[in-house]
Amino acid sequence: DAKTTQPNSMESNEEEPVHLPCNHSTISGTDYIHWYRQLPSQGPEYVIHGLTSNVNNRMASLAIAEDRKSSTLILHRATLRDAAVYYCILRAPSGSARQLTFGSGTQLTVLP
Amino acid sequence: EAGVAQSPRYKIIEKRQSVAFWCNPISGHATLYWYQQILGQGPKLLIQFQNNGVVDDSQLPKDRFSAERLKGVDSTLKIQPAKLEDSAVYLCASSLHPGPNTGELFFGEGSRLTVL
Question: For a 10 Å CB count at each end of chain B, is N or C smaller?
Answer without folding.
Answer: N
